[in-house]
């Protein structure tokens, strides 16, 4: 009888300790998953904010280009203000986004800069529209929207029908 009175409590202590250790392991695992998810969510939010800031600055330059195309005249100070805001906003995706997004932002910014300054794009340079779509596609991949491409070419659709 003395063996059972010694072994059974010892077995209970071992099982209780094992249960506690397993419970702590599972709780730590859940906490680390939650921390990784929250970090990924915060990084995505930061990237999204950077992309929106850049698109806002690019939109202001596009608006100036539209005004110029309608024959309006821009003050030099207004043009420089918008270009400065665009180049500054372009630097934020370079800091928080992937290299493809940063390069697409740079290419789009360079094209907008050249157009607003009245310079003609170099030979072989894609049109502004294509650079904008390249940026948007890179940004969509960055944010996890990797389904069908954003741009649908009307001529290609007609041929496929």
UniProtKB/TrEMBL annotation:
The keyword Membrane applies. The chain crosses the membrane at residues 6-27. It comes from the Bacteria. Keywords: Membrane, Transmembrane, Transmembrane helix. This is Uncharacterized protein. It comes from Actinomadura syzygii.
């Amino acid at each position: 009888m003395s063996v059972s009175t010694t072994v059974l409590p010892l077995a209970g202590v071992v099982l209780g300790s094992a249960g506690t250790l397993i419970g702590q392991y599972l709780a730590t695992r859940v906490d680390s998953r939650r921390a990784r998810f929250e970090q990924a969510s915060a990084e995505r939010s930061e990237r999204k904010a950077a992309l929106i800031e850049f698109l806002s600055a690019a939109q202001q330059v596009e608006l100036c280009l539209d005004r110029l195309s309608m024959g309006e005249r821009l003050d030099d100070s207004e043009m420089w203000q918008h270009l400065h805001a665009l180049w500054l906003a372009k630097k934020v995706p370079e800091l928080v986004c992937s290299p493809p997004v940063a390069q697409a932002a740079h290419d789009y910014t360079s094209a907008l800069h050249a157009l607003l300054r009245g310079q003609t794009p170099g030979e072989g340079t894609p049109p502004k529209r294509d650079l904008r779509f390249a940026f948007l596609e890179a940004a969509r991949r960055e944010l996890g929207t990797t389904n069908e491409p954003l741009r649908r070419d009307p001529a290609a659709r007609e041929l496929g029908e």
